[in-house]
Design goal:
single chain, 374 residues, mainly alpha, two-stranded antiparallel sheet
């Protein structure tokens, strides 16, 4: 075991910082355009949480929108106050679950094959989402994927950064993305949001309840497992307890100031790592970018993010998802164990990771009881 330097100077850390944009941007654009969230509050909160997360963990742990809660906010739709109320409640829940050790006890009883099934399903789902995002811009998508494949052969070149710049340039030339906006520099401060009791109850019903099992599985249990796989000989504070606590604190602090519902995520960690992130540099860099976009540019910062073509975001998701699926190592299992892994992956793809966890955990525990290892 060893302690890696928390910050690295490799240029590929810059590329790694961009590895999770495919997951991040679609939800954020929806939150701002559909829910009416303030870009300043959303981007500033994500930026600060990313900087704090990277500094604390020392490895490229991601900060992502909570997907189930985000979907509820977009479909319902929910008011800013309901989103803030949901963020406060979910923050309290995970802070308590981490501080009391409940989340650690849950993680200890989960067999490794359960985490593998969740990883496999998440990886395939991310890749499929990436392919769908690229479908509207097929020629640009093919070009970006080919460029990424070529760049990823080198361990020196920042693949995601070069592909992002090339994609934005191509989007401007071909009209595949909105034009670069006029930037308005200044000091933009997030507004205070005090949710009413009714708004909080609305947020609990439609966002908190469906999100808790998803965060427990993907953002905490699977993220901790993946971190141990990617950094097997390294001493760092990534564990289920700490991931729950930082998720709780981040939402508690951000929600009253217009922050969106946030968590960590295995797909985001895979994305940062796939494109070169190995230390705190990657999350701190992307955090500083989001902070600058929200605090210094406000709405024009959000408009600038929209100039990234879907083909680029889809390509990032495709490669990140493939890496996450590969890290599940289904070839390590056989017989009934392999069946459970594939079953969980299928349920995760069709429904969500929480449903896969609910179906796979009792089967895995029953198998372990029926066939104990000697």
């Amino acid at each position: 075991m060893f302690v890696r330097s928390r910050f690295g100077g490799d240029i590929r850390e810059v590329s790694g910082a961009l590895g999770d944009l495919g997951t991040f941007l679609p939800h954020i654009i929806g939150a701002i355009t559909v829910v009416g969230m303030d870009p300043t509050g959303v981007l500033t909160a994500f930026g600060l949480f990313y900087i704090a997360t990277g500094t604390f963990y020392g490895v490229p742990i991601a900060v992502q929108p909570m997907k189930a809660a985000s979907a509820a906010a977009l479909i319902e739709p929910m008011s800013r106050g309901a989103v803030a109320g949901a963020g406060i409640v979910i923050g309290l829940f995970f802070l308590a679950a981490g501080a009391t050790g409940v989340v650690s006890r849950i993680a200890r009883i989960v067999p490794p094959l359960v985490a593998s099934g969740l990883q496999l399903g998440l990886g395939i789902s991310l890749s499929a989402l990436g392919i769908r995002m690229m479908g509207g811009q097929p020629w640009l998508a093919i070009g970006i994927c080919a460029l990424m494949l070529a760049l990823l052969q080198s361990h020196r070149l920042p693949a995601a950064l070069i592909a992002l710049l090339a994609g934005v340039a191509a989007g401007q030339v071909t009209g595949a993305a909105p034009a670069v906006p006029s930037l308005t520099f200044g000091i933009h401060l997030p507004a205070l949001i005090v949710p009413s009791w009714d708004e909080t109850l609305h947020g609990i019903e439609f966002a908190v309840l469906p999100q808790i099992p998803l965060t427990l599985t993907n953002a905490i249990i699977v993220t901790a497992v993946l971190s141990r796989q990617l950094f097997p000989r390294e001493i760092n504070p990534v564990n289920e307890r700490n991931l729950a606590i930082t998720t709780g604190i981040g939402n508690l602090l951000a929600a009253p100031f217009g922050g969106y519902l946030m968590c960590h995520g295995a797909g985001g960690l895979a994305g940062h790592h796939r494109f070169g992130g190995r230390t705190a540099t990657a999350p701190v860099l992307i955090g500083m970018v989001f902070l600058a976009l929200g605090f210094l540019l406000g709405d024009s910062g959000y408009q600038l993010l929209r100039t990234i073509p879907d083909a680029v975001l889809g390509a990032l998701l495709l490669f990140s998802g493939l890496d996450l699926a590969q890290s599940s190592k289904p070839q390590s299992y056989e017989g009934p164990e392999l069946f459970i892994v594939f079953l969980m992956a299928a349920i995760g793809i069709v429904f969500n990771p929480a449903a896969a966890f609910a179906a796979g955990l009792p089967l895995a525990l029953a198998l372990r009881r029926w066939r104990p290892k000697h």
